[in-house]
From TrEMBL:
It comes from the Eukaryota. This is Glutamate-5-semialdehyde dehydrogenase. SUPFAM superfamilies: ALDH-like, Carbamate kinase-like. It comes from Ataeniobius toweri. Pfam families: AA_kinase, Aldedh. It catalyses: L-glutamate 5-semialdehyde + phosphate + NADP(+) = L-glutamyl 5-phosphate + NADPH + H(+); L-glutamate + ATP = L-glutamyl 5-phosphate + ADP. InterPro entries: AceGlu_kinase-like_sf, Ald_DH/histidinol_DH, Ald_DH_C, Ald_DH_N, Aldehyde_DH_dom, Asp/Glu/Uridylate_kinase, G-glutamylP_reductase_CS, G5K_ProBA.
């Protein structure tokens, strides 16, 4: 019957389960070997926190209420290991205080007492030696003033009070109270002491106080390796302390900050070392550990063991870099917001590859795609066109499910629902367009653009080549998937697709058809669909793997992608605020047909009319009455511009802005005095997409066509004609 996995939310569990059963019944009519629906997967999301399970995906970290921050010695101390890195520590304190003030319960496990004490004792010893040296110099005696090796426990005893005083002073700046808690291994192994510790910390958290915990290094014995008994981790270092504390206090999240970006598959700095985004229990065999950090008694292996122990206890863990000046100021808040920072430990391994692995597969397969004969690439596109028609039932049933779920959720406006909807007519139109692209694909790659003779027997050629790996992000518009896939195949580019979750079922089926077509010549992996819980912002950071980003959707989407994309070019597009200007010399029959088609044929399209400009002389004429009657019959809601409203005693609702893309059966109606005023209005409020003049006066039309600075400027033609398919471009 296929598989449907839907997102469940606590308040609507029963409703969602009932819907799930209905979809399964619907899906059972489809051949099981052909159809499988996969949407968002949040396994047992409703019960995770109740049973103390860790979060399955980074995005869920936003829900973390109780958080433990572990600050490693390398994060706290300066490079000379004497004294603290005050600027770094101040930025960490600021982030912790901000999260605390958001209503979260924050705890800090800190190192640094030894380093702080070492600085203090060295200063005292040097001061003492200098006094003795001054007294002895009169007798002609000179002694070496080198500082002796300082014992760690003595340094901890001397530094603990100063470290706590520093924390208290920093947190006071944010009106946040702190409390010091010193622990040893016995405090966890002795039941009574452990209960007392738990009670103390619970009470501090209840009073909105940030506990700052450290091992009592002044009295703690040297760590005993491999002393974990009966699944209980021993307190050997602050990594194990943080893990034990997080589990004991039922923390949602443990953030362990160190001096490396996270966990690598081999020692950082080696040629093949790659940062591991998500680490799963059982992956330890694939890891080669390097040496421990310059300070502290732990190392990456100790961090991993502690993290896995905490994970088994129900606490999510992230290991990240707390020393990188580029990210230190927001590393903690980024992690809590679910951004891809450091290594996230998860118990649930996704069935498919990571987005990095998908990108690598797409790149490798894309290179083979680019090397195919042009006729082979055309065959792939034609085969995709055939599959769209042959398997139309699968596509339409999947699309019906998406629409029903969107309607049930009630979150999509009508314009988005129309974009989400597919029909047999749309599929036939798509197939025709794909065949046009297939024909054009034959000379896309390897075409000589220019040939220059640089010298005798030396020629320079400029030829067309693929860009590389494209990332196309599109909203609830599934017909975009085969269109973009065909263009990528025609140009020999690898493709990553990130579609809107509203069209998850339709996108899944269309992507399966695309990969089936690619299999015709062994390049199935050239087009990948990112269906994991990856945030768009995280994908846009893969600047070493992605060559161009193309967002397809609202202007808000485009602007957001342009903001977050770092180091990757973004091919953005404008809004579709298209105007139709009805001149005084317009033909009434043309006006009615063009305005109706421009606004009503497909209101959600970017080339639909959004503002109707009327010459003043047309007001209160039969033509004007016919325009209004037609719009009323088509159920178009009219918003009056300020000039139009001034002519009426009772005007329609006034437009909130003259620069609005309605994307629905709505438009703005405004009055102008001349074609020149129409041009000025469009330049001020339009988006330079497509603008139309309706007139029988050739001179007026030529003035409009020449003066208007838009991509498409039409005379007596519907704005809906602005389409690559209608232009014969596929």
């Amino acid at each position: 019957t296929g598989i449907i996995i839907v997102e469940l939310q606590k308040p609507k569990i029963i409703e969602k389960l009932n819907m799930l059963l209905q979809k399964l019944t619907l899906c059972s009519k489809i051949p099981p070997q052909r159809f499988q629906f996969l949407t968002k997967h949040l396994t047992q999301e409703c019960n995770n926190r109740v049973h103390g399970s860790s979060f399955a995906h980074r995005g869920e970290l936003r829900k973390a209420k109780r958080i433990v921050i572990k600050l490693g010695s390398a994060v706290i101390t300066r490079g000379d290991e004497c004294g603290l890195a005050l600027g770094r520590l101040a930025s960490i304190v600021e982030q912790v205080a901000m999260l605390q003030n958001q209503g979260r319960e924050m705890m800090i496990v800190t190192s640094g007492a030894v380093a702080f004490g070492k600085q203090r004792l060295r200063h005292e010893i040097l001061l003492s030696q200098s006094v003795r040296h001054a007294l002895q110099s009169g007798n002609g005696q000179h002694k070496d003033m080198s500082v002796p090796v300082l014992e760690a426990r003595a340094c901890a005893a001397a530094g603990q009070s100063g470290l706590m005083a520093l924390y208290e002073a920093m947190f006071t700046q944010y009106s946040t109270c702190t409390a010091q808690v010193l622990v040893t291994n016995l405090d966890f192994h002795d039941d009574e002491k452990r209960q007392n510790l738990n009670s103390t910390l619970q009470e501090l958290l209840r009073m909105n106080i940030v506990p700052i915990i450290n091992t009592n290094d002044a009295v703690v014995p040297p760590p005993e390796p491999n002393s974990d008994l009966q699944g209980v981790i021993s307190i050997k270092d602050n990594d194990s302390l943080a893990a034990r504390l997080a589990v004991e206090m039922k923390a949602d999240l443990l953030i362990a900050l160190s001096d490396v970006e996270g966990l690598y598959n081999s020692p950082p700095g080696t040629d093949d070392a790659k940062l591991i985004d998500i680490f799963y229990p059982g992956d330890q065999q694939s890891i080669t550990y390097g040496t421990k950090s310059r300070v502290g008694i732990g190392g990456m292996e100790a961090k991993v063991m502690a993290a896995l122990w905490a994970l088994r206890g129900g606490t999510s863990v992230v290991i990240a870099n707390g020393t990188n000046p580029k990210i230190t100021g927001h590393v903690i808040t980024d992690i809590v917001e679910g951004k891809k920072v450091g290594t996230f430990f998860s118990e649930i391994k996704p069935a498919g590859p990571s987005v990095e692995e998908q990108t690598e597969m797409a790149r490798n397969s894309g290179r083979i795609l680019a090397s195919l004969h042009p006729d082979q690439r055309s065959e792939i596109i034609c085969h995709l066109a055939e599959l769209l028609i042959e398997r139309k039932d699968e596509v339409l049933v999947a699309n019906k499910m998406d629409i029903e779920m969107a309607v049930s959720a009630g979150r999509l406006p009508s314009a988005m629902l129309k974009r989400l909807s597919l029909s047999l007519e749309k599929l036939n139109s798509l197939a025709v367009g794909l065949r046009q692209i297939a024909i054009a694909a034959r000379d896309n790659i390897g075409r000589v653009v220019r040939r220059t003779r640089v010298a005798q027997s030396l020629e320079l050629e400029q030829v067309t080549v693929p860009i590389g790996v494209l990332l196309v992000i599109f909203e609830a518009r599934p017909d975009c998937l085969p269109q973009v896939s065909a263009l990528a195949i025609a140009s020999g580019n690898a493709l990553l697709l990130k579609g809107g979750k509203e069209a998850a079922n339709t996108n899944y089926v269309l992507h399966q058809l695309t990969q089936e077509a690619l299999s015709l010549h062994g390049v199935r992996e050239a087009v990948q669909m990112v269906s994991t819980h990856e945030e768009v912002e995280d994908i846009c950071r893969l600047d070493k793997m992605i060559d161009l980003i193309i967002p397809r959707g609202s202007s808000q989407l485009v602007q957001e992608i342009q903001r977050v994309a770092k180091g990757i070019p973004v091919l953005g597009h404008s809004e579709g605020i298209c105007h139709v200007y009805v001149d005084a010399d317009a033909s009434v029959s043309k006006v009615i047909k063009i305005v109706r088609d421009s606004k009503c044929d497909y209101p959600a399209a970017c080339n639909a009319m959004e503002t109707l400009l009327i010459h003043r002389d047309i007001l209160r004429t039969p033509m004007f009455d016919q325009i209004i009657e037609m719009l009323h019959n088509e159920q178009v809601k009219i918003h009056s511009g300020p000039r139009f409203a001034s002519y009426l005693t009772f005007s329609p609702s006034e437009a909130r802005s003259l620069r609005t893309e309605y994307g629905d059966l709505e438009c703005c109606l405004e009055v102008v005095d001349s074609v020149q005023e129409a041009v000025e209005h469009i330049h001020k409020y339009g988006s330079s997409h497509t603008d139309v003049i309706i007139t029988e006066n050739k001179e007026t039309a030529e003035q409009f066509l020449q003066q208007l600075d838009s991509a498409c400027v039409f005379w007596n033609t519907s704005s809906r004609f602005a389409d690559g398919y209608r232009f014969g471009l596929g």
